[in-house]
Amino acid sequence: MGRERQDGHVIALKKGSGIDFALQILRGPMPRSPGINQSCYQPQRGKPMKYMALLAVALLLCGTTAYAQRDVGSEPVKVEMINAQGEKIGSATLTPDPKGVRVSIQVSKLPPGTHGFHIHAVGICDPPDFKTADGHFNPFKKEHGLQNPGGPHGGDLPNLVVGPDGTATTEAVAPGLRFTDGPESIFPPGDTALVIHADADDERTDPDGKAGDRIACGVISKPKTKTSPG
Fold first, then answer.
1. In whole angstroms, what is the distance from residue 40 CA to residue 21 CA?
2. What is the per-residue pLDDT across 64-98, written as a single tens digit (0 to 9) for each?
């Protein structure tokens, strides 16, 4: 959790960890170090233990607020998936995840086997070829492939495995992406798209892993901002 200095104080190894801060205040004075919000820490000597416990809880919140605020109020995003004939074949739900954006998908009426599965840069799904979705979403300007030393794209996801009955259900995380504004946002100016390919992604070859044609697509639209009444 931390390492001890010669003066007996413990320094948190993970900056911004509310748990480390809470333990620190109960052990002794807080050392100043980069990344610590000093305004969250105001020592009060001689206060009863109940006060100190409440202050420790406050520090726990202070230590985690900066990270949590990045996706505060983010609603899950529902994505309707269609095939090359324009038929709805399932849906996906996107939610914030500590590691990025979590994609949960359930689809049917697909060819059995392994299929490339990616987030594409443009939220336009015009059948039958879905080329309107453009290339992979790549805000970090990397090469394609989860197994590529120069990758991955922000939109790279593990292959989707479809069963003999033509259905698939899976979850995966697009690492580094966020729901909020900024270069890592899954909502750049305009929408993005989820795309399923005809073949397996080899997870190494730039720019698309030799995943073949696009056989299903769904638009990822930014949720509308909720406004308070009055």
1. 10
2. 333 434 454 478 999 999 999 999 999 999 999 99
Q: How is residue 134 written in tokens? A: 């453009």
Q: What is residue 23's three-state secondary structure?
A: helix
Q: Which residues of 132-159 are buried (b: 16+ CB within 10 A; e: fewer)?
A: ebebbbbbeebbbbbebeebbbbbbbbb
- Give the C-alpha separation, 155 to 177, whole Å: 8
Q: Are residues 35 and 115 in the same domain?
A: no
Q: Is the dihedral of CA 198, 204, 206, 207 positive or negative?
A: positive
The parent domain of residue 52 ranges over 2-71
Among 11-15, 105-109, 168-172, name the one with the lowest average pLDDT: 11-15
What's the residue count for the chain?
A: 230
pTM above 0.85, yes or no: no
Q: Name the DSSP class of 224.
A: P
Query: Do 26 and 90 fall within a single domain?
Result: no
Count of domains in the chain? 2
Nearest to 216 by CA among 53, 106, 139: 106
131: phi then psi, degrees, rounded to nearest 5: -70, -15
